[in-house]
């Protein structure tokens, strides 16, 4: 597992933030397709299909692509719709997460224990 210093994580935010914003937008758009995709899935034995099906599939592909790019950097994507990510880091000899989401605006100001999750966020 790759770990980040606070400076490294903050520097990487410049590259990651546009991807998170795009993910958030894509995730909202595919939400509009949920009912149609369920109906198409249920009728797939009869040929399936749905209005906007190609667009839906392309957006799902793009979501997967962006999520993979983020994961390849060593960052954990926790919530697509909120743009919530965790950077593994070392703190007092143990691995913790530096936590950031789009709503935080600016640099990373929070961390939490690996098992505590978002609810356990503490100021750096």
Feature tags:
single chain, 124 residues, alpha+beta, five-stranded antiparallel beta sheet, 5 strands, 20% strand, elongated
Radius of gyration: 18 Å
Question: Share of helix among residues?
Answer: 40-55%
Number of helices: 3
Beta strand count: 5
Q: Give the DSSP E fraction (strand runs of 2 or more residues).
A: 15-25%
End-to-end gap? 21 Å
Any overview of this molecule?
The chain has helices spanning 6-31, 34-42, 53-72; strands spanning 76-79, 84-91, 94-100, 110-113, 122-123. It is an alpha+beta fold and 124 residues long. A five-stranded antiparallel sheet has the order 1-2-3-4-5. It starts with 5 loop residues before the first helix and ends with a strand. The mean pLDDT is 88.
Short description:
Helices cover 44% and strands 20% of the residues.
Topology, please?
Blueprint: H1 6-31, H2 34-42, H3 53-72, E1 76-79, E2 84-91, E3 94-100, E4 110-113, E5 122-123
Antiparallel strand pairs: 1-2, 2-3, 3-4, 4-5
Helix pairs in contact: 1-3
């Amino acid at each position: 597992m790759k770990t980040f210093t606070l400076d490294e994580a903050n520097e990487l935010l410049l590259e990651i933030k546009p991807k998170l914003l795009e993910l958030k937008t894509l995730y909202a758009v595919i939400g509009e397709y949920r009912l149609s995709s369920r109906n198409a899935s249920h009728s797939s034995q009869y040929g399936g299909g749905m209005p906007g099906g190609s667009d839906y599939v392309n957006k799902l592909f793009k979501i997967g692509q962006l999520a993979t790019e983020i994961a390849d950097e060593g960052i954990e994507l926790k919530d697509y719709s909120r743009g919530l990510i965790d950077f593994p880091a070392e703190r007092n000899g143990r691995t913790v997460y530096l936590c950031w989401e789009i709503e935080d605006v600016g640099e990373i100001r929070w961390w939490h224990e690996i098992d505590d999750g978002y609810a356990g966020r503490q100021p750096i």
